[in-house]
Amino acid sequence: MSKERHTRDSERVLLEGANWKELRFYQKSEALYQMTFVFCERFLPKHGDRTVDQMVQAARSGKQNIIEGSEDGKTSTEMELKLLNVARSSIHELREDFKDYLLSRRLPLWDKEHPRYAKMRDFTKVHNRLTDYEPYFVRWGDEEMANIGYTLCCQIDVMMNGYLVTLEERFRKEGGMKERMYRVRTGYRVEQDRKMREMEATIKWQEERIRQLEEELRRMRED
Fold first, then answer.
1. How is the chain split into domains, by residue range?
2. How far apart are CA 205 and CA 202, in angstroms?
């Protein structure tokens, strides 16, 4: 098989995969992880509270599984789906931790009626990167950080849900790696069979042409 053909076949098996650094929900998850770490450092006990480890690990799991899922997606859409769903579950867990923090301290969970909700929503909607949030980590109070963390979790969840729907549709149409490899092998065999038939037809034509020339030469000698 030619190098060019091998490259084309490899591209059919190895998916292009997403550049996870450019995924907006990954960028938000990175900012969320760093913000969660600072939030726990500032507002939760450094010892004797398992919530700290749970929140930090949930935030890290969300971020890391997006990376691993996107990388594994180059060979397996099925594995990408599984890891991104793990990431989404971790974000759900973190969202509930921020909510519990607010409720247990009788702090308001900002909803559409809260005077600061619209401004917060607009800020988090258009800002994705860590550098957008980092300057505020030492300025926001616990109520602000918890509500922004909760809102980021909700936004990441919505964005990931839409992305997963797209992946699931691709998996339904293209199958997993085994199915793609089977199609490549089948396509290669079909191509080889076609070339073999063409070669056999050419050989048959050449043999017939040689027979005709030999017949003409025989007649010329007889004359």
1. 15-174, 176-223
2. 5
Give the tokens for residue 137.
């980590």
Summarize pLDDT for 120-129 with one digit per residue, the tens: 999 999 999 9
Using an 8 Å Cβ cutoff, are 26 and 67 in contact?
yes
Whose tokens are 């995969």? That residue is: 17
Cα-based angle 136, 107, 143 (whole degrees, multiple of 5): 5
pLDDT per residue as tens digits for the range 37-57: 999 999 999 877 789 999 999
**pLDDT < 70 positions in the chain:** 1-18, 174-195, 216, 221, 223
